Inverse folding.
């Protein structure tokens, strides 16, 4: 027979654990939603034409490529980073003194915008990136 005290302590521990899981899930969902909203708002500033005349630079990181856009005189104002599957996983709005970032690199399946990876590669090629550079970056 289980002592009432052991049963009460076990019940309290299970209840505490359940509350922790529910709170953690809510906080995670809220954080994900905020990141997705930031990514979407920065993407809207660039528009759907990724190869627009404002495309000023690009950067490779292992496994993803960033397209960097000019706004007025700021050559590095907006950044969109795509992983090798064409998912928009990271953004930056550097137009002001307090930059705005969005990132779902920890869970790329949440990316709110996707393009064919070939489209990103074609844009990079038009801007002088060689196939060797693309392969070396792992993109």
């Amino acid at each position: 027979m289980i002592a009432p005290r052991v049963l009460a302590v076990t019940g309290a521990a299970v209840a505490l654990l359940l509350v922790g899981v529910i709170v953690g899930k809510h906080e995670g969902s809220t954080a994900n939603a905020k990141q997705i909203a930031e990514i979407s708002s920065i993407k809207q500033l660039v528009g759907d034409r990724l190869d627009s005349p404002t495309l000023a630079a690009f950067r490779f990181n292992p496994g993803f490529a960033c397209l960097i856009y000019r706004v007025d005189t700021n050559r590095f104002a907006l950044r969109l980073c795509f992983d090798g599957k064409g998912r928009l996983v990271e953004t930056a709005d550097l137009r002001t003194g307090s930059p705005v970032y969005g990132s779902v690199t920890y869970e790329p399946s949440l990316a709110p915008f996707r393009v064919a990876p070939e489209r990103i590669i074609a844009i990079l090629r038009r801007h002088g990136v060689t196939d060797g550079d693309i392969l070396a970056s792992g993109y």
